[in-house]
Amino acid sequence: MTHNIPAKEQVRIKVIPELGGLELLQAKYHRQCFSRHVHEGYCIGLIEQGAQRFWRSGAHHVAPRDCIILVNADQVHDGRCADDSGWEYRAIYPLPQAFENVSGDYAENNGVAPWFPESVVRDGTMAIQLRTLFNVLECSENVLVNESYWLSTLAMLLQRHGTVKSRDTEGRLNRTSVELVREYLHVHYLEHVSIQDLAAFYGVNPCHLIRAFTRKFGMPPHAYQIQLRLAHAKQMIRQGISLATTAAHCGFTDQSHLTRHFKKALGFAPGRYAKACV
């Protein structure tokens, strides 16, 4: 089911249950400025008009018309228009499991979800494939057709632009403090966690921890915790749980607090998302 926002900032979001709850977004923005945030899945976007400026991998990038934006799962990024004309794009947000299913066909990947090293790519063939997929998913109710275009698009994207990020083979003891803090937050993101407790537990100075974490991941620990809470909130909304209950469970002061962070990170309100999930 889809839902439109009738305003200059135009957003259309569709959730496709038969593709694992895949989110398909079509948006036209002029004033929207996305705060630094993360997604559970990858962000694969195609610029249809204008240009988007965004931060990823420690640098700013500009994606003009017909270029493809690639952001890896759980990778911090932001977004805004590159000039006063705004930008229009379509995007999908596949979870890592979707790529694992496809990459199992390729011996060199060993079923490991891919890593996209480039933030912006200009690939006419891939752009045509993405446009075809978007058009099919927006209009078709045929599950077999949707799955066929979906899997072929993932396979093409993997072959043309994906690589494999090396696994951590040295074990937990050689990981940095900030990596351990991030792992801790992934487990305890719904709890009240203080920077003093994190710093003491991992034997580092609190100020140093904040600086090092921000340098490594693009945002401080408290902001990263909010992103994890937003991801959990999306899961609850998809399950049909009320926004008030979701906000309280996920550690937000109230529903308006959840809405404010939701819109800053995703570009639309949680109520819009709830309607798209029905």
TrEMBL record:
<keyword id="KW-0804">Transcription</keyword>
<dbReference type="InterPro" id="IPR009057">
    <property type="entry name" value="Homeodomain-like_sf"/>
</dbReference>
<feature type="domain" description="HTH araC/xylS-type">
    <location>
        <begin position="179"/>
        <end position="276"/>
    </location>
</feature>
<dbReference type="Pfam" id="PF02311">
    <property type="entry name" value="AraC_binding"/>
</dbReference>
<dbReference type="InterPro" id="IPR003313">
    <property type="entry name" value="AraC-bd"/>
</dbReference>
<dbReference type="GO" id="GO:0043565">
    <property type="term" value="F:sequence-specific DNA binding"/>
</dbReference>
<dbReference type="InterPro" id="IPR037923">
    <property type="entry name" value="HTH-like"/>
</dbReference>
<keyword id="KW-0238">DNA-binding</keyword>
<keyword id="KW-0010">Activator</keyword>
<dbReference type="InterPro" id="IPR050204">
    <property type="entry name" value="AraC_XylS_family_regulators"/>
</dbReference>
<protein>
    <submittedName>
        <fullName>AraC family transcriptional regulator</fullName>
    </submittedName>
</protein>
<dbReference type="GO" id="GO:0003700">
    <property type="term" value="F:DNA-binding transcription factor activity"/>
</dbReference>
<keyword id="KW-0805">Transcription regulation</keyword>
<dbReference type="InterPro" id="IPR018062">
    <property type="entry name" value="HTH_AraC-typ_CS"/>
</dbReference>
<dbReference type="Pfam" id="PF12833">
    <property type="entry name" value="HTH_18"/>
</dbReference>
<dbReference type="InterPro" id="IPR018060">
    <property type="entry name" value="HTH_AraC"/>
</dbReference>
